[in-house]
Fold these 4 entries.
Entry 1:
Amino acid sequence: MNIQQLFFVMICCLASSQAFSQSIAQPTPKEYTMKRQQWVDSVYQSLPLEKKIAQLYMAIAHTKSNMPHVDKLVKELGIGGICFMQGDPAEQMTIMRALQAKAKIPLWFSMDAEWGMGMRLPNVGNLPRALTIGAANDTSLALRVGRAIGRQFHLMGIHINFAPVLDINSNPNNPVINYRSFGENKEKVSQMAMYVIRGMQELGVIACAKHFPGHGNTDVDSHLSLPLIKESFESLERTDLYPYRSLIPAGLKAVMTGHLSVPALDATPNLPSSLSSKVVQDLLIQKMGFDGLVFTDGLNMSSVTKLYSSAALDLRSLMAGNDVLLFSKHSDQGIDTIRRAYEKGIISEARLSLSVKKVLAAKYDVGVLKNFKKDTTDIARDLNDSLPEIRKAVAQAAITCVNDEFDLIQSIRKSDIKDITMVTLSQKQNMFETEFVRQGLKSIVQLNLPDSNKRKLQWERIRSASKVIVNVSGLLQSPAKNFGLDSLKLSLIQQLAELPNVCVVIFGNPYVLRNFCDVKCALICYDEETETQMAAIEIFTRKMNPKGQLPVSVCPKLKEGHAFRSPSW
């Protein structure tokens, strides 16, 4: 990049940052600020010590299983909030109202819904994953997705979304982030996240970015064990911390700290960064200037419960600089431990009041004092409203052609559909195959057959066909077990990918491509939603061209940002 290009990028980033700041960080009127402070101070002074500490707790709720326990936490301990993980939408809203009626200090509610409430609630569709948004690389679509998520939260009366992921997915073997990241390009990750956050916060929802200081370069799932980040401080500063440095000045309201061992930031052996004052207090809050809410990642995760008791975890989290303690396994013990630490002077009044008052002020801002009256009738229908249109728009922008060495896509477009052969490796038809058949496709080859003699005949059909589309579906999004590809399917796709008359269409994670880097013609479609499959059909029927670009590097020849464009399109 030359000096002129660098200057242009800096100006664009500054303009985006200013626009973002203006959107989500509007000045608060003096009267509003005074009323909020009066309420916060009044509530704080009215609470006994244990109830002040309890405001820092947010419990996990499964509407079908642990609600008696949650009910007890609200009525007896007076915890500050609830995070709902699963349940029927109408039932969840009814439960939320019942819990709110029992709470002396209004509760605030959260969900972990990175691709919308379909991630958690049945009968609600999904919005595109972050990696798909990264492939589309369109800020207007990112904003649209953020607004759609914000609208869902507004309808349900949920105040906080533990999203988006700001992790730079620089490790292809990352078992837990992967498709949850916008990609591996720090500028694009920051920009897409910026607009998703803006969309949510326009609807009054607090977006909580995660997992500070960066979970992208790991090959361990922090739900199971403590990942070790071996990068130097310079590398972290250059890459993983970049999105936070970009978004904090723009008005980011909340950050989640990750359970990660990062020796470059704190050399204490096996100390999770979420429990490190050097990481949370010194780096995030003081050096990076973040004055918003700091949430821990789940304190029920094995990466930390293997190392500390629940009470010790809670105390260490608060001492490190976190404000809200998520999913403590024993909130009563934690509250008692923090109380005793306060009485011994280990936790100062200034430290406690800082976090409690931040929580109370945020509650006031999201409207917990307002009477939420949304009717639960047809709530699932309302939550699904506009989702198909958004999925369609993102799919059309995201589908990526990674190669078309012999201009096969254009050749297929010019052909009669009866002259095309489709190869499927699944026993189950998907929409892509069904719609092609509806439009007149006659030749379908089921290649994944146990009988080797029959498979030999099928190969003869494939090699003699002039134009072949390989339908790769039913994949897993995560890299576990090679995205669900068994050894037979993998071998078959590798052989097909080498043929000049074959275009491979992958409805799944782009990292699947690392199994066949020399593919002659391939489209990566990122997921298997109906709208995605229909968009893929449109590419072969001349209605649209592939517009997306790879958000991650999958092969030496297929780097982040790669996209094949044919001069004949």
Entry 2:
Amino acid sequence: MNCNSVTRFRSGTGRRSRFGHLGTALLGLFFLQNVCAQSLDFWNPADPRMHWTSEINPAVIPYQETKFSVGLKIRHLGFVPDNPFDLRENRVNISIPFFLPGRIGLGFDMRYSTAGINKEIAASLLLSREVVNNFSVGLKLGIENRSFNKDGFNLVDADDPVLAGNLATNSPNFGLGLFWRAQNLSLGFGMNHINRADIGVGSEALLPREMIAAIGYRIGNIMPTLVLHDDGSRKRVGFFLSFTPEHIGSFRIGHESGMPFKLEATFSLRKDHQLSYTIDLPTADTRAVSLGSHEFVYDRVFSGDIGTPELVLPNPRLEVIRETVTREMPSDIELEDLASNPDLIRLFLSSVGLRRNLMVITAGALSPNEANEDRLQRFRTYAGTIAEQLNNTPDLELILRADSSSMYDASMIKEYLHHISLLDRSRIHVLKLTSSGLPNLKGFEPGRSTVRRKRPELSSQNLQIQLQVAGKNRRARRWRLRIRDASQKVVRKYDGKGVLPATLVWDWKNQESKLVAPGIYTLDFRVQGQSGRIKAAQPKQVEVAYIKRSVKLQFKDGT
């Protein structure tokens, strides 16, 4: 029940009113007003996770989970025998962020309270939208029905227009809210009864505007909040302290001047199910004589917040190969003669070949009349001298040149070296010669030494960054990836909104589209869920290594 349910009523009976009867009625209203003042529900408009906050500040809906909440609140009195008012309140709240087109959030709140002589039903439609980054606005469109039962009074003046019958009024209730969040700082503001609804008879029964503002700052899982509240008759200062550990629930303590302490504990029963218990504890500063209240709330989360992300890097190392190729030719060699040399193969001049140490031999008989014994002797020579060089130079590879008639011989040599000399097959290559034209000898100049620095070659063109989260919910308000160097300077950044992508691709370049320098780079990924909570992945590191290679091609006369 809202404290503003009863203000001042104007009686039109004048002299005909019986002062004794009216005094009894006003005494009852006075008691009810005092009870309301102690039991006033005050919220924290800067905390989207708190129950019923969207009713006073609908702007928080974009930062909430999609959920359904139902609650029962029981108030206790200390000055009324047998507790005849039997104060109870039932409440239902639905929050659906980003439900309507244009990323408009939708909410619904309904409250029913009874106090013996008074009953109240209020329903509100809540709309919200994030207009700019981290700033949202909300609108409340509500209708309230209040009624007083004359049977709750001992004496009733039948001629009094206020108390002669069951007083029931309907009035609209308009409100608005503002919410802003920047990293760990949160600001919230809510205003209720902007239209100053008339709940009684005449202009003397107007509800005052209610305003509440709060500022909170999150430190890890703890969020202290300062609250300023103006209920239209009195200005109050309060505070909240929230503790929200992961996967457990939340705990809150709050207090407002002249009001009881509010203690709340929320526990996760199962996945997507929560139960909360709240108790109000009066203090010496609490006005009147309330003995506090108890509230139970059940939450059913339909679309939970996104889980903690994890970065998976299939290739966390980049090798940047920077090669310098030196070509030397004596002046007495013609390029045409060199290109027609049968021992010059394309692999010598390719980018693959230049990164290898290669030994080339020609397969096939040494003479047209080679006997089996001559062949075995040739194989023994390969097994001795050539295998010895391969064993002494671990990165040396052998190329067996062959044509159609000598392919069998090349295969036999390869198997002989593998079984007799125990060489790895991957280091022996059989290359079949084809008549595909002459090799490209661009860069070779007879009688000169030319140096060519090749463009850097990358061991992988891109870094595939996989973004994994537990569960199927990948909806996020926003996410960001920062890639920092050893000095923590950001060299590349990625930002986005909405559904979290499965993979991000880094082309190893900085913000200026230049290849990054060698070193260790740290990937920092954070995601902000629908509830506004920011979750960070475990940082990952990648290495960028520059490898310098020098290749020298030297041709001599007669070779």
Entry 3:
Amino acid sequence: MSDSFPRQYARTQRLSLGEPRSFTVSPDGSRVIFIRSHSGSDAVNTLWSLDTATGVEHELLDPRTLNTDLSELTAAELRQRERAREGASGVTSYACNRDVTSAVTVLGGSVVLIDLFSGATTMPAIEPGVFDARLSPDGTTISFLRGTSLCVASLTGDERVVASDSNEAVSWGNAEFIAAEEMGRFRGYWWSPDSLSIAACRVDVSPINIWHIADPAHPELPATEHRYPAAGTPNASVLLHLVSVATATAIPVKLSGNWEYLNTVLWNSAGLIAQTQTRDQKRIDIHFIDPATGASTIVFTDADDAWVELVPGVPALQHDGTLVTCADRDGARRLLVNGIAVTPTTMQVRSVVSAPHAILFMANEINTPWAIDAWVYNNDTITQLTDSHGVVSISGSVNCYVSRISTLETERAQFTVHTSLTTHDIASLSETSLVQPNVRIMSVGPRAIPVAILLPRDGLSTKLPVLFDPYGGPHAQRVVASRAAYNSSQWFADQGFVVVVVDNTGTPGKGSAWERGVMNDLARPVLDDQVEILRDLNDLEPRADTSRVGIRGWSFGGYLAALAVLRRGDLFHAGVAGAPVTDWRLYDTHYTERYLGNPSIDASAYEATSLCNDAEHLQQPLLLIHGLADDNVVAAHTLQLSTALLAAGKPHEVLPLSGVTHMTPQEVVAENLLLHQLEFLQRHLC
């Protein structure tokens, strides 16, 4: 039996399986190490190497050849994978030494050491049950986390604990929930360049309230305790220490200032730096740290009346100690070199890829936020490295880099290795989507709201019901010049809908004022932009029947979908809200307080944006979907809204997903979730 799109989309993990990823370029540019599975339906990643002179690929490690159970994962690694939204198995991450001649990974809780030339593997005599293994820069020592302890071992074994605590609420080397979920910091320890010391986070979660996540489908199982830092409540206490590998002594790092969050740490040959952030997120400090004493000096500060945005890849130090960072200046996010803005105000910098010599960074022109390209700043000159008219991501440095380019014209992303002498494609083994997105992107209205409209490829002009398919929240775009971004939207279009995707106020790419338009209100400005496009839709698309309008979304998109039918039921006639935030007091500190403030000080913004307070206004069909094992947007959001709706006498539907987390990785669930949403929308709109 041939696949349907929902089956293919679920089986291939949203068509991601078989794509190469997680690239590491050797310092001499001769080799590229990466992860890829054998096909678009194979969920087991293997480790590969590509010779940049010849373009020849060589498989280094297939985990299935080892005597390990890939399903044996520690609870800590499962949590780590959930934070990273990792659904595959096998080699999902690896870490190399400085010269990229060897690497370590963890398979089934066991450390595996790989020779990156021959592919020879060894399994050091280290007891299973570890995670986040790394190699010292000189390649002689393996570091890893076991439970709450930071450990090291030789290449053959001889495990030693170098940092530990008798208090089970204290861990060493871990990335706490907020760091991994909201700050993009997935690690909690960093090797010194000389391989003698480790900068490690000491994380104390005892201040955080304990929540309990149960599985109602299995009442015989105990509930899982989950330390969740909800808005207005205490965070973990995070302190940085310098740990001697030889003596296991720890020197506390003295980071001055009134800070609550440790955003990032960088340790390279130019020095050791850390960035901290205040609880209200209106100030960040970059500290230069003396590795011998732990003393530090603030070398850069940024402050903002709204918030200071965290940008991937910065702060960074160039080889000569020059500080590279990013900040919002004159209405745009700009690249700063030693505190001086060097990019124009027409450009929005999205991330810094590398900066040892020339600075490689990703950016978009503010008037076309859906197209992201790579740029280089060197010797006071900015050069555009790619001109894709699509979405680009880059790994490596200017001398040797890997580009991933996805456009509206190409069926799959293209991966290419670039050196000064050659270019070679890296094969993508992902499947070709069974749908062919038929999408056009435009800017609408005086504020140039980014909009994508998708139609079925039926060649007809008949009127169709409308389906809004947004995300709508900060840090995530849906209107992008990449065909792959619209696969599920196109499937709904092919079932007989005009699908509309709107990137409203607060989404990335359109400059500082646009992003800050949601300050103190995550509801009204977000919904207003969706309504503005709906009111203009008859002029934008003749096939749109605006008397039949649905809206669907997940996470923030779920919040937006429920918000639309609750507050503007006159315009939105059915809603599907997946894993919605319904009361922002139930969401985490770092994300929520950035936009709405601290509810323990002033809860007015939380009252104004709570869906539960709008329950009495529901007049249209609403389907609520939630994974009961979700530890990010916990199921209490949906359950409390459902309770409020029932108390108000408002009929609605609830679909609980037993054992499902926020990323719904289960194949059968992912397939039937699309089909269930379609049935609901057809029932009420067609």
Entry 4:
Amino acid sequence: MQEKTSRYELESTLLQVAGNYSWTWDLQARELFNRIPSLNGEGALHPAERIKLLSEEDWERLTNDAEFSALARDAHSNLPKPLQINDGTTVAYFSPEFGVSEMLPQYSGGLGVLAGDHLKAASDLRMPLLAVGLFYRDGFFRQALEDGQQRERYVTNNPRFLALTATPARVELQLADRQVTARVWRTNVGTTRLFLLDTDLDVNDEFGRRVSDRLYSGDREHRMRQELLMGVGGVRAIRQLGYEPAKFHLNEGHAGFLALELLAEEVAKGLTLDEAVTAIRTRIVFTTHTPVPAGIDRFAPDLMRKYLGVWADRYGVDLDELLKLGILPGGDDHFNMAAFCVRIAGRCNGVSRLHGEVSRAMFSEVPGGSEITSVTNGIHARTWVDPEMQMVFDDKLGPDWHLPAADAWNKVDEISDDEIRTVFASGRQRMISMANSQLGHETNLDPDILTIGFARRFATYKRADLLLADIERLTSLINDGDRPVQFVFAGKAHPADEPGKDLLRNIVRFAGDPASNGRFIFIPGYNMAVARAMYAGCDVWLNNPVRPREACGTSGEKSALNGGLNFSILDGWWDECFDGENGWAIPSSVADDPQQRDREEASLLYDILGDEIAPLFYGPGGIAPTADWLNKVRHNWRTLGPFVTASRMVKEYGERIYQVAAGS
């Protein structure tokens, strides 16, 4: 008979498992934490916090549970083994946000979630990669609805309840006429080290402490301070901690100021500014995610002089020559962070094939702009695929289906109709339960009805309200007696984006209209957990941006791996992946007038939904989804499965962009 596990041993084991964010994708660790009691009905606490707040009664029960103790030991033994960092191959990945988990609220949307998936895939491939960002005490806003309006609230985060550990590093940074100090937190995402700089220190005055307060919430000057801290401070931090990366990867232009630290080192050796730029170029990789000029960080000349003048004086560099590196030819005199990054990076890429074309056109006049290539974004499959579906894949495709192994997906015909229907039904029920919980009341969603999902940032170009173009046609689809359709929406508008908030209000208003029959809903509190439930519960994923303004759009990739079929404008990743059978394409209008374009594309959307999608889902036999639908799902997996994973993406970065082999 096995001895009872001591509380000290069990608590230590649990905290070590909670201290590595591999629990966000490891099924065994997720099952372990699902068995720990929630506190006061709040199930969204980080496992590290839940463990520390357990009662004596809880500990008594857990230490007497031999099965739980064995599961804890197994999860601990399966923790990813640390990599021996080799500075000849290490990549330092800089990003303003990281969407590792909804319980580490350091992300706002797609850019951050992509960054989190990048770290996880690097761990899966055992690629020597470390990551650098900022720790935002108040994170990004939590969303609530009041009278149909989005309301933002902020919650102060305790880093020690988020499995962050203080490092000995302290970074000092001159921000105009102020000296600011930052500490550096560390956490592990599998084998990947993530370092986050934090200025909320007693040694700083109120100005200094607020530099890293919130994500994307300040004015332009506040944004510049944060980007200098992340870039210059980030390089200093990892150097203090003993790392000398071979490559610096800029995930968007927000971290571009790291080049200042690298340039300073070369200028200090006696090189001119031009020579220094040439010297650092081979070490910098730049990924642009922005297909429109309005989405690029730009800073006014007076702001640049205020903050970079100190740097130029210190290193004897002509400030005007430095500022020219960020001027977009044919533009104004504002410092363009993307143009700067294109000039100082040896390799630049967009995030889909189409976005690469758009980026080359955007930066054609910038030296290096015509050489921008593309690496299409992917998603971390073990994070985003429903656990029940993962178990089916593990059984039928083998345990490595989430890795770059195309052959695994050729086995999808071994998954029976009944297995798929069972997983789909379970996912639908859990999504409906989640929707009821988020809304605080029972919805009228029906688990047997064709369900269309839409969840993303409410930016105007994404046209969340395109479905509302013709209410009569929409309600006829919702209330069809034989082939009804229901719609589930979620997403956030940036606090300063009033047009985006208007889109959200339009969706919420129709959701409350009796004409929607309670089968067109908006789920508030959008985060990664809400998104996962939707991917598992929706049959079709809708995406209708204005082409070509969607750089990639990975939400559709997440739905695809869960068995959802994409119904999208041919933009972003869908433009290169749609083969005519693995989903549906919404044809793009050629009308010059935006309103006419929207009307035409909405009409086509209704046509395809009513004439092709609903009939295939329901069929004549009364069993939905039909066998023909499920064959289309299998074709979706067979054609998209090998491509949409982040492991394919990171492997491609390693071989083509970093020129660093995974697994080294």
